[in-house]
Design brief:
two-stranded antiparallel sheet, globular, mainly alpha, 578 residues
Length: 578
């Protein structure tokens, strides 16, 4: 019973915090006064003045999309050169040299696309300057870009007979100043209080409590403890659904996630803004029921995924049970599959994190997904493969789900012989093409990428396991890239030219194809007039539509990925039973 209460507490706290935040974000993006206006209002005006931004500008979808593209391209170029030149840049007390060109390309694509896939260990590969001025900055602006595009899509539904979707530069500025920055400051202070490091000190060498004796007889008596400005990056990596770890083992590292309270703060931060944006959506389309319907569809799928992961990990495997290592019948022994999990977090803390991080396009981990049971690992992979729409990334998860909602109303329209409508706008062929492109971009990128990789001998040499689990490692890697997630099975050496380049391309396609498709869809919708609801209009805020929306999301996922999953985790599950 206590275990169920723990799971319930994680979910309840998330919703309680998200509801007021959703209303706040809606006000901010509408330009209304909020309690932080007195603090950041003057900063906002200075930004507009210095950068010559017209606060009242109304961009059409093409100009909005061009602004998004150019902004991210400039960020890509700057971050690429920071990686290559970090050996010559300041704040590098360990003298870490620049990265290889293919790792620089991969990591730049990763952080520009809000993926934060990492084929390296941060403490041994990147300087403080690269982590702080390169990656942390991208964590802010990639998340803000997703929020900005979401609000352009919302305006497409709300406005009528016009072309203006707002200004990308204004949306970007407000997202950073009023939402991401203040939340990051609060979370940074909270986790620093728990022991997360935040300094510019050189790495420290400390004496081990007990020497480690190697096989050749040598003794290890010292350990190097990495330092650095970790807390500031960790806060925004969670809040912005970025996920990239300051240290190689991410949030399993004791200096990145030291206590149970820091674990709670960080895991709640992962889904806080994506959940809040559901309520923002209802508020800003002037129908709160619409936001609640989207929220309920996402929440039900998250609960199902969390339940499957928790049950699989708590049950463990026949091999563990046969050796007597599941239920040790000792005080406070959780039992289950504890391989790859932190004892301080246990199965509950690990399962919740695994479900939250793969529901969002976050990718941070406090346990190793490679060590999960076949079905537990499959659920983390499937959540990514569904398009990161079970709350998903900041902004992009919700506009991705709106693509599925349009697909759902189209299917319902076919059944009853009516032209589909959503939020008072007719859904016609162009909108359907853009919605389908949004929904299928992720499956196509994942399946093409993992299929090509499975045929390349170099990739086979990068996996730590053969057979079904080895294929799962490849499939998970390209799923993580195609879903802009960033987590990994951790049994996969991804730092090779082929993998770095192909995964980098996959991340760029999966991020910007749906983004541009949804902007085009918004540009078409904003020109249309509102249609009054009639007796024959399909309700998109009742239980039937919530069920239909869930069915469509799962149907696309099942049709796309069941064959691949059958070759990986499902096959491994039956091998385990045999």
């Amino acid at each position: 019973m206590f275990t169920f209460l723990q799971y319930g507490l994680y979910l309840a706290l998330l919703v309680i915090l998200a509801i007021p935040l959703g209303a706040y974000i809606g006000k901010v993006m509408d330009g209304e006064n909020v309690f932080l206006s007195k603090i950041f209002g003057s900063c906002e005006k200075i930004v507009y003045k210095v950068l010559h931004i017209k606060q009242g500008e109304e961009m059409n979808w093409k100009k909005y999309a061009l602004s998004v593209g150019v902004f991210n391209l400039v960020g890509f170029i700057l971050l690429f050169f920071i990686h290559m030149m970090q050996g010559l840049l300041p704040f590098n007390p360990q003298g870490i040299p620049g990265t290889s060109w293919h790792l620089a390309f991969n990591n730049t694509a990763s952080f520009v696309t809000n993926t934060n896939w990492q084929a390296y260990s941060g403490e041994s590969s990147l300087s403080y300057f690269t982590q702080m001025f390169g990656l942390t900055v991208q964590n802010f602006i990639s998340a803000a870009s997703g929020i900005a595009v979401l609000f352009a899509v919302i305006r497409g539904f709300v406005k009528t007979k016009t072309e203006g979707l707002g200004s990308f530069w204004v949306d970007l500025t407000r997202s950073v100043l009023y939402v991401l920055l203040p939340l990051s400051i609060v979370v940074s202070l909270l986790i620093v209080s728990q022991g997360v490091v935040q300094n510019f000190s050189p790495y420290e060498t400390v004496q081990l409590v007990e020497p480690i004796v190697l096989e050749d007889g040598r003794k290890i008596t010292e350990q190097i403890v990495p330092m650095g400005p970790a807390a500031s990056q960790i806060a925004i990596k969670q809040l912005g659904t970025n996920g990239g770890g300051f240290f190689g083992v991410n949030s399993a590292h004791p200096l990145e996630n030291p206590t149970g309270l820091s674990n709670l703060i960080e895991v709640l931060s992962i889904l806080l803004i994506p959940v809040a944006l559901c309520f923002t959506f209802g508020r800003n389309v002037k129908d709160k029921r619409q936001g609640k319907a989207i929220f309920m569809a996402m929440l039900l799928m998250l609960v199902m995924a969390l339940g499957c992961i928790a049950a699989a990990e708590q049950q463990g495997t026949p091999q563990l049970a046969g050796k007597g290592t599941v239920d040790l019948s000792t005080y406070k022994q959780a039992g289950g599959n504890m391989e790859g999990k932190e004892a301080r977090f246990g199965i509950v803390g690990s399962s919740v994190w695994a479900a939250y991080t793969t529901a969002a396009s976050n990718g941070s981990v406090n346990s190793m997904h490679d060590s999960y049971t076949p079905l537990g690992g499959m659920m983390t992979m499937l959540q990514i493969q569904l398009g990161e729409v079970i709350f998903g990334g900041v902004g992009c998860g919700l506009y991705g789900m709106l693509g599925f909602a349009i697909l759902a109303v189209f299917m319902a329209g076919l059944m009853v012989g009516r032209t589909p409508e959503y939020l008072g706008k007719k859904i016609e062929p162009f909108e359907m093409k853009m919605a389908v492109l949004t929904c299928l971009a992720t499956p196509v990128v994942i399946l093409v990428g993992s299929g090509l990789a499975a045929m390349v001998p170099e990739v086979a040499e990068s996996i730590n396991n053969s057979g079904a689990h080895g294929f799962s490692e490849i499939l998970y890697a390209y799923s993580s890239a195609g879903g802009n997630n960033g987590s990994a099975f951790a049994g996969f050496n991804a730092n090779t030219p082929f993998i770095n380049v192909t995964i980098g391309i996959a991340m760029l396609c999966a991020r910007f194809v749906p983004m541009m498709a949804m902007l085009a869809l918004a540009g078409s919708l904003v020109k249309k007039k509102h249609i009054a609801a009639t007796m024959g209009t399909l309700s998109t805020c009742n239980g039937m539509f919530i069920g239909l929306l869930i069915f469509v999301v799962l149907l696309v996922g099942a049709l796309s990925f069941f064959p691949a999953l059958a070759l990986g985790p499902i096959a491994e599950y039956f091998q385990m039973l045999g």
